[in-house]
Write a structure and sequence with these properties.
The chain has 301 residues and is of the alpha/beta class. The protein is built from 13 helices and ten strands. The protein is globular.
């Protein structure tokens, strides 16, 4: 198995939807969020975990076969009593990606990947489920590169600032603290060749604060941000959408790269600037976020 077999995520905005609240499911499907993350973990109290799992399974079963909406499920952690049942529901359902919280090591990732592989064999599911790995504890941050590189199913890293900062008295509004975490997570994602996604901004009544937080993540090369309310979706989509000029330049670079690499040339000039591997990768990243199918085609060559 390789990462090229995994689903391709394009998530400028990812809207959290509590799995225990089915009245929100259709509204979420009609939203402008790039992806929906149905939450079985923090948003669902312990006594309703099983009920939420059944509600979400029924919703997935009701979706038409042609549904192409990007959907994730945040399951309960690998060491909880709910993990196996949550993962079984994900594999049987329509989600393309499982968001695994509270990971502590590469071994946790391997356990999750092996669980998915076993369930896929048992159910006959042909499309593999990818893993979006949460980084939300001091230990996870220490082992972030190990987590990112642990298995090809890992297609992205996501920061959980609440769990990472709040228990230890760290103010999540402290930009220096947040940016140091973002840099560590982004570099680990870069080493693994995957995307990094920013955590939630909890003050729904502060759109300017959300925008500033998203811009800080954008400056660190993050591809998108979690949204806990529909009013945050448009802001995330705007911040993380590449500009028309960036897209046009990226197209030039990718097209020139195809021609040059086909001739065995690794470095070339575009608009008077030297371009080589890192700049090609950045152009591909920009086009992937913008949703250009040509990027997928190139990645599969």
């Amino acid at each position: 198995m390789t990462r090229l077999e995994m689903p391709v995520l394009r998530m400028r905005s990812k809207l959290f939807v509590p799995a225990s609240r089915p009245e929100l499911f259709d509204k979420a499907m009609r939203s402008e969020a790039d992806a929906l993350s149905f939450d079985l973990e923090d948003a669902v109290e312990e006594s309703r975990k099983g009920e939420a799992r059944h509600l979400l399974a029924d919703f997935f079963a009701s979706l038409p076969p042609e549904n192409t909406r990007q959907m994730l499920v945040r399951v309960n952690g690998v060491r909880t009593a709910h993990f196996d049942q949550d993962m079984a529901m994900v594999v049987a359902g329509r989600a393309q990606v499982v968001n695994v919280p509270m990971l502590e090591s590469g071994d946790d990732v391997v356990h999750a990947a092996q669980t998915l592989a076993r369930l896929e064999r048992e159910t006959g599911r042909s499309a593999p489920v990818g893993i979006l790995a949460n980084i939300e504890s001091p230990r996870a941050l220490r082992f972030v590169a190990e987590i990112a590189l642990a298995h090809p199913r890992v297609i992205g890293l996501q920061i959980g600032f609440g769990d990472l900062f709040s228990p230890y008295g760290i103010d999540s509004r402290d930009e220096a603290a947040a940016q140091s975490v973002r840099l560590a997570v982004r570099l680990a994602a870069a080493e693994a060749g995957i995307s990094a996604y920013d955590g939630a901004f909890v003050n729904i009544a502060d759109p300017q604060g959300f925008r500033a937080d998203a811009m800080a993540a954008l400056r660190m090369g993050f591809s998108g941000k979690s949204c806990i309310h529909p009013t945050q979706i448009a802001l995330a989509n705007e911040v993380f959408r590449p500009t028309d000029a960036q897209i046009a330049q990226a197209v030039k670079v990718v097209e020139a790269a195809r021609e040059a690499l086909g001739r065995g040339v690794g470095a070339f000039v575009v608009d008077g600037k030297l371009v080589d591997g890192p700049f090609i990768a950045e152009a591909q990243r920009i086009l992937s976020i913008a949703g250009w199918p040509a990027v997928d085609a190139q990645r599969r060559e």
